[in-house]
């Protein structure tokens, strides 16, 4: 049956009907007063979501574009940076930094395990000459479903005094609390197709006064991703280049929905869905890639042993119209990932759980009692 696909992946995520309808409006002039009002409202609500009074800039780019902008606007060739690398995206930021001639020191951990804040503390305390200019950290590592301890890592960065902290919050912003001002985060990047509940195409960067001071002396080349013009234009409630107007309509509608739900309710919903999903997977006797205490609220990575991950994904898609994500790099074919991010409700969790049970039985996996997964998920959802 057409149009029944349910996205249970870490992005793009499901889009609410009222957001889709907002996108269906006829475009308006992006230099009009009416569009400026939309920019102003969206910007104010973005500050609410980021829990900040800092600038929050809107770019026409993916989350990768936001992170590249976050790196190149505040650093110069040869600058020394620490990059947390415990998955696909931490590794990507190290590659971006090297591409621009930065001196990268990677703080690594095995995929499926969190970064060790003590490794950051040791490196930062050893830098008595204050040569480290930035620390780049992925908060929620989408490739493995691990949530890194950003709060503690940031505390060590603040003790250093000189370094900026640049955060990939692409799958954590809108799924768990990222209190930009309370923690003093300098640069925080995110993308529209995740917790924001709208299609891909927009990304967001919050920028602190300390980061803007670094911008004044940064010399890496930039043009389209030069944040200076974005800041000047945002002050006038406009954009430096032609924006995807209808995605701004979507952003306005989605942020209105999020404000109506409230921050604490959004975070509690994601936490509940994370716990329900993990309880269901355990009840089906499927191993999880990472431990519970560092589990991301956005994605759960499963490491099946007696049944192939790709066969599970195939049956889920073909028979039940549910899309699950696969593994990346060396985990390709070894894991599957269940997304529970953005516009996801209890019904989605139970539908995915019951379909996964049926899939496992179809594939001959009999290491669980049928119904155990649904029962475990329901117990969490009803608690």
TrEMBL record:
Modified residues (N6-(pyridoxal phosphate)lysine): 194
GO biological process: glycine biosynthetic process, by transamination of glyoxylate
Cofactor(s) essential for the protein: pyridoxal 5'-phosphate
Pfam families: Aminotran_5
Statement: the UniProt record of this protein carries the keyword Ubl conjugation: no
A GO term for molecular function: L-serine-pyruvate transaminase activity
Keywords for the protein's UniProt record, in alphabetical order: Aminotransferase, Pyridoxal phosphate, Transferase
Cited InterPro entries: Aminotrans_V_dom (IPR000192), Aminotrans_V_PyrdxlP_BS (IPR020578), PyrdxlP-dep_Trfase (IPR015424), PyrdxlP-dep_Trfase_major (IPR015421), PyrdxlP-dep_Trfase_small (IPR015422), SP_NH2Trfase/AEP_transaminase (IPR024169)
Keyword Membrane: no
Location of the Aminotransferase class V domain: 10-329
Binding site for substrate: 337
Family: Belongs to the class-V pyridoxal-phosphate-dependent aminotransferase family.
Name of this chain's protein: Soluble hydrogenase 42 kDa subunit
Organism whose genome encodes this protein: Halomicronema hongdechloris C2206
